[in-house]
Design goal:
- The chain is mostly helical.
- The protein has a single domain (2-155), classed as Four Helix Bundle (Hemerythrin (Met), subunit A) (Up-down Bundle), CATH 1.20.120.450.
- Helices cover 60% and strands 0% of the residues.
- The chain is built from six helices and no strands.
- Helix 1 packs antiparallel against helix 5, helix 4 (45-63) packs parallel to helix 5 (88-111) and helix 4 (45-63) packs antiparallel against helix 6.
Amino acid sequence: MKNHIEKIQAVFQGECWHGPNITEVLANISSVQASYKPTPNTNSIAELIEHIVAWRRFTVEMLGGNVEFKIDVEAGEDWPRYPNGVSEAQWTAIKKSLDSNQEELVATMTAFDNSKADQNVGHRPFTFQQLAGFIIDHDLWHCGQIALLKKLSIAN
């Protein structure tokens, strides 16, 4: 799990081979930019961050032993919607949620019993080790989307 901890820290605020980390990409984004959608069916930066936090929370729950935890997709936990955009206060709260989630994720990964790393996560078809890799991939995927939306929001 140590290798995954180093990677999740790098993706969040460290040196990345691919370019800027999540913290760098989010720097200087206003609530207006965080609300920007190039098309009605596109997720905004704020919605992407909420989605990232939801799946990181899922990972924290799994690694913490709550393997029955589920994200309530019907209640909008997977993709929270902000049809009217977010205020500066909401945007600040969303970013703080990501920051505190980062601390919780790293702490949970650090405390994880590595002897369980190759065990399946409950009844799911993946191991704890794979889950830790999945969340890194997930963060990177959405970080790229956020970087693109940031550039588009500046251009428009």
